[in-house]
């Protein structure tokens, strides 16, 4: 239990520090921790990514795997092309924190899954849903987004969205060939076949438009981004704002039970999140570029004594 | 043989209105949106910023410490609150819980300083266009969480250490997801007031939908299906605090601001109306 | 690989072993901590370094939960308030116990504990509070019994906690250090390190009534920056597996002055700082 306990003195230290603009680890209010991200680390999945938000090998660690399966159209499903094509599930692993054991993580899992679901299912997601349709009103691709929280040190939402974006960007959808046959009654029947060739698989259209989130944690009278576990325990209210690369708002969610926000503070918070989101987009972009370079170097270095598993998530230190 | 609950009469897994002429339906839906966008006209005849008239009555459940019934056109919500009462030992349903990441349940250690607020939200089987299962689904659990996040800031939990306040909300009939949640929040807040639990302010919630660039207050289901974006806000008008804010779909920053202002204005009206009902009920007793 | 020639062990600076490693078959040796014996052979039961004192062979593990010894200075967190006792998390296999009779009460050190004290135990220590204490004794099941009967022990204030591997904090004469940079550090042997603003001993003694206060003193931005820097230095030492002593912390602190406090934990800077500190530690 003790990891989730704070003394009143520590609470005061953290709150007052944020008031003064210097956090317990020396960061400013809007500073992010170090971000590391790797793509394509799970060979069995259509797309995957792992992200760590933290310093020197510890921090919030999230793994997202994406599986594409073919779903059948059932009578009564909404005609809306964007509904329920992406199924999200987030699981906080009990190995990340004692408190997640048993049913302890139920609420967190539910909250994160529902939030992810809301952000991804709909036009705000950015993905071209028409691509997921194989034969209208018959068969379509369903993307299963499964996230695993492997290590927990605050700010899971933003890390989750970054990993999901990277994983979706990494996703390749197998090619499908649709054949139209007219049967003896003269009715047009459509059939399809999945092409096995991995080379023929296509990336998702519109993957660059997937939004990220910025979560502002209100501690005392101020708000900060990217809280560690201790700071999270001091949080009175939390506002998650989802922003796409065009700067449009794709979702807002308030959370935490202890307090609300002054309506006058909201416009500013929205603007701050918009700005921070663009910071995050650049960070993510840079980190992904860096990691793909690293991968290249790994391949060259063939004489290494280390067993090469190819997809190891290499952590410095 | 029968896999369902044998104590109940089980309907089909999911039933659909037997309308086969899909095209007509779609045309009708498009017309709803066009009327709003072009002519500021709504199917129900209301103005764009006019909520459905509300009816509120408190004290209907004799066993409960507080209760309320709330009606807004087709939406009907009943709710009861029990407590403050001693915390049920964990194991009996209530999870020990963690207080990280916005989870609503308070950790045991924290309950020595403030009350624990739990919320149970349930759609009745016949409240939606399809039959709801008697098992709680994840949507209902999330709504329960959103409602307790909206209400908790208003309750003076620190006055009731080691106790729990338990809220049970039943949606008898719904019409629009967001407006039903808003109705549930309003109803629950009235029930808390009825229970005599100390609060900073009443919480009033409103929902709003975006059609192209026009915001429309309090959308019923037919309108909600057509909206581009929707926002649910809960606020404490006197304390001037927004306690819940959920936005879905794509918008711009200034549009969100506009929506918040609109909702606040409508919320204040609803607040006055709800208070009227509450004080009337006091006069009768 | 059998290491019969123990002299070789002595010469090599460190023999690293993993669980199940056959250390020796020579029957003249005795088995110590971290080893087990079977058929007069001694095997390692943990992964760590082999140590030999005369005929006693033991293996010191790299990473292990804290194991208490009498006289250890530790930092712990109250997890539970019971009757006449507190349960304290000390990063060990059992929660430690702090008895009401083992603490100093405000207003006269030699006062008798009364019934009213029992009723207001939360005014002394409440759940979540951090205590600076000494191990007084231990029970059969491994649970420690603590005491805070000294003016420097008691509730910790004005700072923040850093958690490190317990093995990295060596037992030494003093665990309370006032660093020259104006920061006080309490290095709990259990791996909990408290970093706080420097408060002169005279002030602490003058305000004996306030030992259980839950209020921080005023801490300036400058002081916060220094505390953050020291915390990050300690985290760095922990992650890079360098012994955490007042000297190593001061060295890291001095080496880090060229960077902003928040930059210390950046991968490249951290590696660079660690090299500097290691070199300097080896010089002495």
Automatic annotation (TrEMBL), chain A:
<dbReference type="Pfam" id="PF01138">
    <property type="entry name" value="RNase_PH"/>
</dbReference>
<dbReference type="InterPro" id="IPR001247">
    <property type="entry name" value="ExoRNase_PH_dom1"/>
</dbReference>
<comment type="similarity">
    <text>Belongs to the RNase PH family.</text>
</comment>
<dbReference type="GO" id="GO:0071035">
    <property type="term" value="P:nuclear polyadenylation-dependent rRNA catabolic process"/>
</dbReference>
<feature type="domain" description="Exoribonuclease phosphorolytic">
    <location>
        <begin position="210"/>
        <end position="275"/>
    </location>
</feature>
<dbReference type="Pfam" id="PF03725">
    <property type="entry name" value="RNase_PH_C"/>
</dbReference>
<feature type="compositionally biased region" description="Acidic residues">
    <location>
        <begin position="297"/>
        <end position="306"/>
    </location>
</feature>
<dbReference type="GO" id="GO:0034476">
    <property type="term" value="P:U5 snRNA 3'-end processing"/>
</dbReference>
<dbReference type="InterPro" id="IPR027408">
    <property type="entry name" value="PNPase/RNase_PH_dom_sf"/>
</dbReference>
<dbReference type="GO" id="GO:0035925">
    <property type="term" value="F:mRNA 3'-UTR AU-rich region binding"/>
</dbReference>
<dbReference type="GO" id="GO:0000467">
    <property type="term" value="P:exonucleolytic trimming to generate mature 3'-end of 5.8S rRNA from tricistronic rRNA transcript (SSU-rRNA, 5.8S rRNA, LSU-rRNA)"/>
</dbReference>
<dbReference type="GO" id="GO:0005730">
    <property type="term" value="C:nucleolus"/>
</dbReference>
<dbReference type="GO" id="GO:0034473">
    <property type="term" value="P:U1 snRNA 3'-end processing"/>
</dbReference>
<feature type="region of interest" description="Disordered">
    <location>
        <begin position="291"/>
        <end position="317"/>
    </location>
</feature>
<dbReference type="InterPro" id="IPR050590">
    <property type="entry name" value="Exosome_comp_Rrp42_subfam"/>
</dbReference>
Automatic annotation (TrEMBL), chain B:
<dbReference type="GO" id="GO:0000176">
    <property type="term" value="C:nuclear exosome (RNase complex)"/>
</dbReference>
<dbReference type="GO" id="GO:0000177">
    <property type="term" value="C:cytoplasmic exosome (RNase complex)"/>
</dbReference>
<feature type="domain" description="Exoribonuclease phosphorolytic">
    <location>
        <begin position="51"/>
        <end position="198"/>
    </location>
</feature>
<dbReference type="GO" id="GO:0016075">
    <property type="term" value="P:rRNA catabolic process"/>
</dbReference>
<protein>
    <submittedName>
        <fullName>3'-5'-exoribonuclease</fullName>
    </submittedName>
</protein>
<feature type="region of interest" description="Disordered">
    <location>
        <begin position="1"/>
        <end position="23"/>
    </location>
</feature>
<dbReference type="InterPro" id="IPR020568">
    <property type="entry name" value="Ribosomal_Su5_D2-typ_SF"/>
</dbReference>
<dbReference type="GO" id="GO:0071051">
    <property type="term" value="P:poly(A)-dependent snoRNA 3'-end processing"/>
</dbReference>
<dbReference type="InterPro" id="IPR015847">
    <property type="entry name" value="ExoRNase_PH_dom2"/>
</dbReference>
<comment type="similarity">
    <text>Belongs to the RNase PH family.</text>
</comment>
<dbReference type="GO" id="GO:0034475">
    <property type="term" value="P:U4 snRNA 3'-end processing"/>
</dbReference>
<dbReference type="InterPro" id="IPR027408">
    <property type="entry name" value="PNPase/RNase_PH_dom_sf"/>
</dbReference>
<keyword id="KW-0539">Nucleus</keyword>
<dbReference type="GO" id="GO:0006364">
    <property type="term" value="P:rRNA processing"/>
</dbReference>
<dbReference type="Pfam" id="PF03725">
    <property type="entry name" value="RNase_PH_C"/>
</dbReference>
TrEMBL record, chain C:
<dbReference type="GO" id="GO:0071035">
    <property type="term" value="P:nuclear polyadenylation-dependent rRNA catabolic process"/>
</dbReference>
<dbReference type="GO" id="GO:0071051">
    <property type="term" value="P:poly(A)-dependent snoRNA 3'-end processing"/>
</dbReference>
<dbReference type="GO" id="GO:0071038">
    <property type="term" value="P:TRAMP-dependent tRNA surveillance pathway"/>
</dbReference>
<dbReference type="GO" id="GO:0000177">
    <property type="term" value="C:cytoplasmic exosome (RNase complex)"/>
</dbReference>
<dbReference type="InterPro" id="IPR004088">
    <property type="entry name" value="KH_dom_type_1"/>
</dbReference>
<dbReference type="InterPro" id="IPR036612">
    <property type="entry name" value="KH_dom_type_1_sf"/>
</dbReference>
<dbReference type="Pfam" id="PF15985">
    <property type="entry name" value="KH_6"/>
</dbReference>
<dbReference type="InterPro" id="IPR025721">
    <property type="entry name" value="Exosome_cplx_N_dom"/>
</dbReference>
<dbReference type="InterPro" id="IPR003029">
    <property type="entry name" value="S1_domain"/>
</dbReference>
<keyword id="KW-0698">rRNA processing</keyword>
<dbReference type="GO" id="GO:0071034">
    <property type="term" value="P:CUT catabolic process"/>
</dbReference>
<dbReference type="GO" id="GO:0003723">
    <property type="term" value="F:RNA binding"/>
</dbReference>
<dbReference type="Pfam" id="PF21266">
    <property type="entry name" value="S1_RRP4"/>
</dbReference>
<dbReference type="GO" id="GO:0000467">
    <property type="term" value="P:exonucleolytic trimming to generate mature 3'-end of 5.8S rRNA from tricistronic rRNA transcript (SSU-rRNA, 5.8S rRNA, LSU-rRNA)"/>
</dbReference>
<dbReference type="GO" id="GO:0000176">
    <property type="term" value="C:nuclear exosome (RNase complex)"/>
</dbReference>
